[in-house]
Amino acid sequence: LEVNDEIENCKDDIASLEREREKMKHALSLAEKDKLNILERCDGLEYLLNKEQKEKCELEHKVEAAQFNLRGLQKKYEDVKGSLDLANNKAEKARNDHQRSQMESNRLKAEL
């Protein structure tokens, strides 16, 4: 009778271990699915990071090009401003010369 009880207990233990093994297999399967999902998300995040880095590099190149163009425009502005200042100085001198010649002309007319 004790041996039969012992055999029954062993059978129960085996059945219990089989159920536990099935639970573990199911948990392992879920963990594998989670692992694959995490790897997919990592791949997606890595793709987005690479894309962001590429866009950052492109923007940095655009900024450098814009700064280069700005320096060129600044130089042109300074050249034009210098030419305008020179033209204004010549115009002022011409006005002064004209005013002097008008005054000289008026003086000569008054003498006649």
Q: How would you describe this structure to a colleague?
A:
This protein is rod-shaped. The chain is built from 1 helix and no strands. The longest helix has 110 residues. By secondary structure, the protein is mostly helical. Helices cover 98% and strands 0% of the residues. The termini are far apart. The mean pLDDT is 96.
Q: Provide the succession of SSEs.
A: H
Provide mean pLDDT, rounded: 96
User: How big is the Rg?
Assistant: 47 Å
- What percentage of amino acids are in beta strands? under 5%
Helical run tally:
1
User: How many strand elements?
Assistant: 0
Gross geometry = rod-shaped
Largest sheet geometry: none
Low-confidence sequence ranges: none
Structural category is mainly alpha
Give the % helix. over 70%
Distance between the termini: 161 Å
What does this entry show, briefly?
With 112 residues, this protein is mostly helical.
Any chance you could write out the topology, listing elements then pairs?
Blueprint (H helix, E strand, L loop, with lengths): L1 H110 L1
Task: Provide tags for this entry.
single chain, mainly alpha, 112 residues, 1 helix
